[in-house]
């Protein structure tokens, strides 16, 4: 059994990231598996080197340890995506040969126009987008425009047994549609990189936030196209702020670094998160390793958890 946590170093980690990281860690440890840390710094615009270090320090402060990762090495490295581009290139060639990719010249604006959505909510890329692409392709090519590469998604449903959510029917044509594997600016897309890395690192169990469930159909198609068995998936419920909205790095949600600086003890954070998951009845000071023996994914609360003032008071020593 090999599990992983895969932070994107686009900011400091918040309590929601910590909760998912703990779950992935507890699951791997409870199964006697190997826990891998992988830094997903694919997006060169948004990722920052200082956050790579900061995120690893935040997770260590929380009490996590990993068997393989950027700072400890391991047999499946490098553990930083920006050092793995050659693997994505190789996978791209496999997909290209099998005829499942196509060049897409649609700009963000074109996509919004086709979707016809008034506020440009991204409808999945499908028939209408392909047809517009076919109309403008020759012209864009003459103009020397670089296309993105998309994976063609035909209408279909995929059955998934998720270890937390249960049986789900995924509809990738509606969820992502034809998804990007390499962006027009040459950057690699998340969907491709995450699958290539989980295959190459022999990950058997993916524990991650349920905001990624809609990406799972696209990823299952990539596993199939690359001739690999998919791992088991467990999509865990998210942590919500007092406003009922999920925590987000860009909103400046409470980060582990900020809590550390404010003198909050990591045992308080672990205890609060464990109680938010229903592993203990009420917050108690606890160490991350207190849960590794007994942890079972099947026992966690299945609903998102909303933080309120009393939780923050507990963190700060109330
Ligand atoms: N790097 C992704 C994130 O931080 C997680 C990807 C995954 O777990 O599949 O949201």
UniProtKB/TrEMBL annotation:
<protein>
    <submittedName>
        <fullName>Glutamyl-Q tRNA(Asp) synthetase</fullName>
    </submittedName>
</protein>
<dbReference type="GO" id="GO:0006424">
    <property type="term" value="P:glutamyl-tRNA aminoacylation"/>
</dbReference>
<dbReference type="InterPro" id="IPR049940">
    <property type="entry name" value="GluQ/Sye"/>
</dbReference>
<dbReference type="GO" id="GO:0006400">
    <property type="term" value="P:tRNA modification"/>
</dbReference>
<dbReference type="GO" id="GO:0005524">
    <property type="term" value="F:ATP binding"/>
</dbReference>
<dbReference type="GO" id="GO:0004818">
    <property type="term" value="F:glutamate-tRNA ligase activity"/>
</dbReference>
<dbReference type="InterPro" id="IPR014729">
    <property type="entry name" value="Rossmann-like_a/b/a_fold"/>
</dbReference>
<dbReference type="InterPro" id="IPR022380">
    <property type="entry name" value="Glu-Q_tRNA(Asp)_Synthase"/>
</dbReference>
<dbReference type="Pfam" id="PF00749">
    <property type="entry name" value="tRNA-synt_1c"/>
</dbReference>
<feature type="domain" description="Glutamyl/glutaminyl-tRNA synthetase class Ib catalytic">
    <location>
        <begin position="2"/>
        <end position="274"/>
    </location>
</feature>
<keyword id="KW-0030">Aminoacyl-tRNA synthetase</keyword>
<dbReference type="InterPro" id="IPR020058">
    <property type="entry name" value="Glu/Gln-tRNA-synth_Ib_cat-dom"/>
</dbReference>
<dbReference type="GO" id="GO:0005829">
    <property type="term" value="C:cytosol"/>
</dbReference>
<keyword id="KW-0862">Zinc</keyword>
<dbReference type="InterPro" id="IPR001412">
    <property type="entry name" value="aa-tRNA-synth_I_CS"/>
</dbReference>
<keyword id="KW-0479">Metal-binding</keyword>
<dbReference type="InterPro" id="IPR000924">
    <property type="entry name" value="Glu/Gln-tRNA-synth"/>
</dbReference>
<keyword id="KW-0648">Protein biosynthesis</keyword>
<keyword id="KW-0067">ATP-binding</keyword>
<keyword id="KW-0436">Ligase</keyword>
<comment type="similarity">
    <text>Belongs to the class-I aminoacyl-tRNA synthetase family.</text>
</comment>
<keyword id="KW-0547">Nucleotide-binding</keyword>
<dbReference type="GO" id="GO:0008270">
    <property type="term" value="F:zinc ion binding"/>
</dbReference>
